[in-house]
Give the backbone structure.
Amino acid sequence: MSQSPSNLFDLAILGAGPGGLSAAARAAQRGLSHVLIEAADKHANTVQQYQRRKHVMAEPSLLPLRSDIAFAAGRREGILEEWQESIRRGNINVRYRSLVLSITGTQGAFQISLKCGETIHAKNLILAMGVQGNPRRLDVPGEDHECIQTTLECADDHRDETIIIVGGGDSAIENAIGLSTNNQVIVINRGADFQKAKHSNSLRIGAAIQAGKIRCHFQSRIVRIEDDKSPAGAGCLVTVTTPAGEIPIRCRRVILRLGAIPPRGFLEPIGVRFCSAAADALPALTAELESSVRGLYIIGALAGYPLIKQAMNQGYDVVERLLGNALEPADHPVLQCKLRSAPFGHDVDEALALIRARVKLFRGIAPLALRELVMASTVRLPESGHELFVRGEYRNSIFNVLQGVAYLYVPGAATMVIGEGQMFGALSLISGRPSEATAVAGPDCVLLETPRSIVRKLLRTETAAQAYLTRVYILRALKYYLMPSAKSATILELAKTAETKHFAAGETLFCEGDPIDRLYVLGSGSVTLSHGIDGVDVIGAYCAAGGYVDSVGELSGEGLRSVTARATVATEAISIDHAAFIRALARDPSMAERMERERAGQLAQYTHMQARPEQGKVLSFLMANGVGEATSVLVIDESLCIGCDQCERACAVTHDGVSRLDRKAGPSFDSLHLPTSCRHCEHPHCMDDCPADAIHRRPNGEVFIEDTCIGCGKCEENCPYGVIHMAEVPVRMSVVARLLRRTPPEQPKTAVKCDMCIGLKSGPACVNSCPTGAAIRIHAEEVTNLVNRRAAAGS
């Protein structure tokens, strides 16, 4: 039966996701007659479809939550249960299994037609249905095959299947890794890499591909899907076009992870206009989130705001505005506090507009992205002459100059003046290496310091920012790593020929005997350089970030590579045209002299290693186990170790009884043992995606976990070396509590790892407690010296 128009609702909300729930709860709290319409049979359908036990983050972490519905980071199941209880407590009028066919009418008299035949009348509408109900399609023959699905509830439900995952983003990677334990997984990625995914996810799937756990076809796409008519009958036959041609793949299921787009076919007949004709264009909305149809508001992912907390705030805000209450954005108080010290006035929007106009990195990025970035950043007003950081320190942030100037000092190079709108610190951030420069504040200097995690997120989501940072990174890398004495014109000339290239661990940059057409400078990661001797590949040298690869071949004049270069870990390299470089070298005697010194040193390494091929095997072992990205890795000489476990006991005593070290675990080779202990990586995988921002790095490279850890386990999952584990850290009780024999409160598990014994003046307890000197800690750059010392001692 249709509802009488005389009894129309003040507000109808389409979609019982986080934004819709928040809007309905606020309407109920404020006494508005409302109805929450949901096509599925449960609330928060998108979250319901997350993988079981998935940790849901509450980002941006600094953004206050403005809602009558509770939400904090936690497991999917707990969050859904809390929201279900909020629906009951809040007297929310929700209608499940109510598919909307069409919307007609205008403000004050909207009519919502349901599939069941009923019509609902409302004065105002909020569309909060997200975009997951409209996933991108393959647009190929057979795309409606029964083997195709767009969600994965639980990877453990599938065993011994061949499964294709289509996509290169985070959800595709997480599904692929989850399924790979018990299935054969093949990823079809249109791109050449996984650069749009989170850094940790990109590294995880790169490692899985390298280990053979997952197959991936890059720059490939599905062209058709049909029934598998073979005797085995796997399910479907998928034809994929790859750079090498078309290939057939028989599989049980195909999981599409291509994202979703706004349902224009549903929205445009209502009168909703879009920003452009592009399939993924967003609806045109006012600052109050009202569409081109008066009284119709759009919030959440459908409006371009995919984060749960954003959608919940928007649902709350729209209801308050319908009641005539003017609201500042939820982030306004945080931004006001952040910008208070900046000499840009007291209006937040004006200050943000000025920052956006001045800072080159921020031009072209979305307004919401800028607000989130500034909210997580810090405004600094250092005195002239104040050292912001010194050469050799590891950096966890970048600086943008909002006003005045800053100076960068590098030995052997002219002082670089960083003016208004420019940035510095990016080279260390991208490379993971210590800073090459000392940064000093100039007169009237006002800086915006932005954390590493926020910059990485910005680069994943904002192409304009990524392009600008890449340009600056190339120029600074050429200046500091390759040509500190070169003129600016020379650097600019070479930068025009530059490209950035990404290599997975074990991937080859070039092979011995290849023609030399590009010069490689390592931006991050490291490579081994090897020769073929009697049919055996023998490592002759190691090259870290900041070095140039194969200087021997570059300057030989023969035009052929003298070695094979392979990445030891995920590596980024800048390549420039070799002919242009040789021309620049001829014009710069000091640069030519520097390159000749590098060539002589590398040639000496080759000669030394060729005389002792066993050293190359040791070096290969160390590199294969992540020592190439370590700032401090524990190495035990098993020829000296007596197995007393003093190192492990000393670690436990130092850390409240919980050891961060497992001496017996870990790989060994030629009496060298790498126990399970943190390597303090140059690019700490554990820091990526930490929802509580609890993992930090000191200027000396030490990576440590703060007490703010929430025990989500993301760092344990992201660490490729298995050195982080979740443990119950004992609670320190007062003397009175112990005398009264009170039971200590139950503690949730938190992440623990080696912290280099912060606070101990004597240094790491594991090394100091070793009675034979078997335990040492080394930096990646000391690996070659370690190998040479061992060879000299054994000769």
In short: Residues 589-611 form the longest helix (23 residues).
